[in-house]
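Dear colleague,

Following up on Tuesday's group meeting, I ran the structure prediction for the four-component complex that the binding team flagged. I've pasted the input sequences exactly as they went in, so you can double-check that nothing got truncated or mislabelled along the way. The structure tokens for the whole assembly follow below. Feel free to forward this to whoever is handling the docking comparison.

Inputs:
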Amino acid sequence: MTPTDTARDAPRACFIAAGLEVLGERWALLALREMSLGVHRFDQIARNTGASRDILTSRLRTLESHGVIERVQYSEHPPRHEYHLTTSGAEIAPILISLAAWSSTWMRDETPRASYRHSCGADLEPVLTCAECGEEFRPGSLMLGPLVSTADPVPVNQQRQI
Amino acid sequence: MTPTDTARDAPRACFIAAGLEVLGERWALLALREMSLGVHRFDQIARNTGASRDILTSRLRTLESHGVIERVQYSEHPPRHEYHLTTSGAEIAPILISLAAWSSTWMRDETPRASYRHSCGADLEPVLTCAECGEEFRPGSLMLGPLVSTADPVPVNQQRQI
DNA sequence: CTGAGTCGGTTTGATTTTCCAACTAACTTG
DNA sequence: CAAGTTAGTTGGAAAATCAAACCGACTCAG
């Protein structure tokens, strides 16, 4: 049994699968994209993503329940809320950036699309490096590590802020 | 009209949305994860992801039609194929890595899960930097750029290999 | 040669999700 | 007072997904 095998019948439980349970539902990443771009209100998020309102409601509740976004009240009467990224939510930026960069390299077609830039003004050309060794992550440099659960202490700088 | 607004009724056409059309369908990223880990056969991909066989078939066809993976024949009688990442497919690694890193920071709970490492042996701690200015991408450093289509020349080092 | 097993699917029918348009409640604005 | 705004909810149809069974073309053990 090599390290990449799993038991005969159990899907591989890994952090990629876990992340997708929250971020992988339809419209979730697009809603987070909007908040990253400074759009915080329900109607505008619905329009800019194209999600139907009922599904968007459901996604925002899921994201909120996982601490990725929070509802911030901006009106008392009637009660009205804006959606804002938490620290956890802001840290999905590398996912969006990697996705945008991949897509702008490989998904070009006749459709005109908004591209993205780094705040320095340059076209998006992100480089992913390993904080430990400083080397760039090359395709194939992703390896399986050990099983991890809450029993393992979480570094203080990575503790969840709600 | 600020740069983050779209027309009253049109969703924002951007490269994030475009990428999600291919990579955002259920099971697509998990299938690509398996191929990244060296699992190339239908049955094993189905088992390791948990996808049902019919929708996995459909996903693999979609990924193939977008040039993200390719079918490689490994048996003539009966005809049997393995699924392999193309160059384009291998370059989704930063997306998977960013997702795994985010998830291992923010999605810890009682469930034991496989973690990932860089090939140097270190725990996954990726840093995303701008190739142009060398600065790290910070949350909020993603800005909208201009509209782009195929009319724009694609850099030679980014041309699609099939 | 027979029977079991493997592999990569396809088929079937039930379940779940998503979509869309309309509707609502509680306001604000002209 | 009528119209508009905002953040949803509701209902019914359409689409996607699910699980399990089935299939054809093989291989392999006995």
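The two ends of chain B are 41 Å apart (CA to CA).

Cheers,
M.
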